[in-house]
Design brief:
- The chain has six helices and ten strands.
- The chain is an alpha+beta fold.
- The longest helix has 23 residues, at 11-33.
């Protein structure tokens, strides 16, 4: 099933779809995709009234922090995306001004999946909050997967990846012509890496990497879960989305 043009639907219709899609991704991750010692759960973003992020956490504990986490190793099977980039060390160094103190207990958040909603782009303040939050996750060594099924607007002329990457210090990214939608995975390391897959309406969603460590990841089945979630969209909105 191709990606639909969600600009045709109301923000409420996408929110309804989004609230079905995220839990379905959670179910697939917990049903054998995540290695032993990891689990996914839906959480409410700070300051928001809706559950809109999916976190992957580890219950391995401090004794297992240096054990092999499982998953796919980048050097053996690099993620299959169109664009791969590493943040230049000089740019990144100028942004590493945060001191984080972490408790060496269980249930550490290691990765986050976020689906961009119309509300994130509704105004300058919510958009800046979104960009700063996502860039902050990378700075704090949390791996990230962003799904943005909405085209760029005046606040994100180079798409969500262009905005996040610029906030981290590199504004060189240009969104490819004819592919306004964005899937972007980030491996949070001393020098972060981005794996970006631009899309157009009508494309099939490819599996995207979700990093568990800077060098290992699991593939997230976006197309399978998108299809399953779309079946629950009310007919009123399916008619609008599927109109030629």
């Amino acid at each position: 099933m191709p990606v639909h043009d969600w600009t045709r639907a109301s923000a409420g219709a996408f929110h309804d779809f989004h609230c079905t899609w995220i839990p379905l991704i959670k179910i697939r991750l917990n049903d054998g995709l995540l290695p032993s010692g990891y689990y996914a759960q839906v959480e409410q973003a700070a300051g928001d009234l809706k559950a809109d992020i999916l976190t992957v956490q580890t219950d391995a504990g401090p004794a297992a922090e240096h054990e092999e986490p499982g998953g796919i190793t980048v050097s053996v099977a690099p993620p299959e995306v169109e664009i791969t980039a590493s943040l230049e060390a000089a740019h990144y160094a100028s942004h590493r001004r945060r001191l984080t103190v972490r408790h060496s207990s269980d249930d550490r958040v290691v990765a986050v999946i976020e689906v961009v909603s119309p509300g994130n782009k509704a105004g300058r303040r919510p958009w800046r909050k979104f960009v700063e939050k996502t860039a902050g996750l990378i700075l704090e060594a949390t791996h990230l997967l962003i799904v943005d099924l909405f085209p760029p607007g005046p606040r994100d002329p180079q798409g969500v990846h262009g905005a996040v990457w610029a906030d981290l210090g590199d504004d060189s990214y240009t969104i490819p012509t004819g592919k306004p939608l964005t899937l972007a995975a980030y491996a949070a390391d001393d020098i972060p890496r981005a794996y970006v897959q631009p899309l157009a309406v009508g494309d099939v969603l490819p599996p995207m990497p979700l990093f568990l460590t800077p060098e290992t990841y699991i593939p997230v089945p976006l197309e399978e879960t998108y299809q399953a979630a779309y079946h629950s969209v009310p007919r009123r909105w399916r008619t609008v989305l599927e109109a030629t």
